[in-house]
Amino acid sequence: MSTLLLLSNSTSPGRPYLAHARDWIAEAVGDARRVAFVPYAAVTFAYDDYVARVREALDGLRLEIVGVHASADPAGVVAGADAVFVGGGNTFHLLREAYRHGLLDAIRQRVADGAPYVGWSAGSNLACPSVRTTNDMPIVEPPSLDALGLVPVQINPHYTDAHPPGHQGETRAQRLAEFVAANPESPVVGLPEGTAVRVADGRAGLLGEGAARVFDPQSPEGREAAPGEAEALFVR
Amino acid sequence: MSTLLLLSNSTSPGRPYLAHARDWIAEAVGDARRVAFVPYAAVTFAYDDYVARVREALDGLRLEIVGVHASADPAGVVAGADAVFVGGGNTFHLLREAYRHGLLDAIRQRVADGAPYVGWSAGSNLACPSVRTTNDMPIVEPPSLDALGLVPVQINPHYTDAHPPGHQGETRAQRLAEFVAANPESPVVGLPEGTAVRVADGRAGLLGEGAARVFDPQSPEGREAAPGEAEALFVR
């Protein structure tokens, strides 16, 4: 199994796009040069612009970043790449297009063969068994909510316990408590912004400064991940 | 077509459950006495408790409120009721169970035959063509995201432009702009908490004090609903 780097988010306050993750990404890709970038989470901006933004953010890492959307055979671009990057945006749009272009099998195969996978936000949701812990609005309907399953546990990106004052809608913790009640067999790791999980060589660890939170039937309201717990959750 | 009352939310700050909507509900039900209540949006509390809460909130309106879950034939309870109420909670859980128990056709038929429909939060999402403008987490997977279609337009309940400071996740307006980009043919009405839409006798109007917002290709960032616009949107 190759290296997986799953980021909560792309942008830390006051810093350029992906800047907080640049060193982590460099480490994850290692010798890889040709990157298949999946931009299908973009909805309100152009795929070409998305590719340009990622190229600019990672300039200097000597990566050749190719948007899979520009090919008549997106799955072939994945198959021929050294690494796969999947960017954030709307998770449902990403998943629908990934199914449409046969990317799920292509990415699973390429990662099984050793290619590093880097995802952020919706791209981290995509790496999970399903996208059922996304925060995004289901603006389009994919054929299924099942996703890549590169890791055995669900991630909630952009995890926060902040909530607009007076607002009566569910808090994030309430939403995740509902997930746990409906799916007691499926723990969830809430990754605060600025954090990530790295899985490689049968080990897993948390990166960044915020504390990841674990939601499961013993802690439906969430608890801080214990030392070593990420490994128990992400490597099975 | 019967009277539809679609509420943004169940609870206004500092007031008991459904108190802000009690007079609207009384008006909507009219002479109806036997209410089929659909509690399937509840995930972390019992359906029986949900029925008890609604009965208590509407005590004095002389309604006989029956939870459809308690019957071996939930669709039959709908068919035999004078009115249908659908409560809030998790929209995906509500929709999955509604499909499982054959409630979509049963509710559509009963409403077409004249029964008032009252929904709040997830229950308002259910009245739309699809649930793709819910704020809820997709904790379970319904067979489809298509819903009742009692109204021709999408509602976003609990509409707010508030956002936790510093949080990098999408704002509600950004999520709805994505919906409009992906679905230009499908306008969305954002109902702030404390508001509702009432549809009856070929007329539609907004209730409550907050201004509804309309999201469509001309206003992907949203605009305040113009006078009479609700009628143009909800009655076709």
From TrEMBL, chains A, B:
Any one GO molecular-function label of the UniProt entry: serine-type peptidase activity
CDD domains: GAT1_Peptidase_E (cd03146)
Domain of life: Bacteria
Catalysis performed (reactions): Dipeptidase E catalyzes the hydrolysis of dipeptides Asp-|-Xaa. It does not act on peptides with N-terminal Glu, Asn or Gln, nor does it cleave isoaspartyl peptides
Signal peptide limits: none
Compositionally skewed regions (Low complexity) per UniProt: 227-236
Protease is among the record's keywords: yes
Localization in the cell: Cytoplasm
Region (Disordered): 214-236
Catalytic machinery residues: 121, 136, 158
Keywords (A to Z) from UniProt: Cytoplasm, Dipeptidase, Hydrolase, Protease, Serine protease
GO cellular component: cytoplasm
Pfam families linked to this entry: Peptidase_S51 (PF03575)
EC numbers on record: 3.4.13.21
Record-level GO BP terms: proteolysis
Main localization, broad class: cytoplasm
EC class name: hydrolase
Family, as annotated: Belongs to the peptidase S51 family.
Functional note: Hydrolyzes dipeptides containing N-terminal aspartate residues. May play a role in allowing the cell to use peptide aspartate to spare carbon otherwise required for the synthesis of the aspartate family of amino acids.
HAMAP family the record matches: Peptidase_E
Name of the molecule in the record: Peptidase E
Species: Rubrivirga marina
Lineage: Bacteria, Pseudomonadati, Rhodothermota, Rhodothermia, Rhodothermales
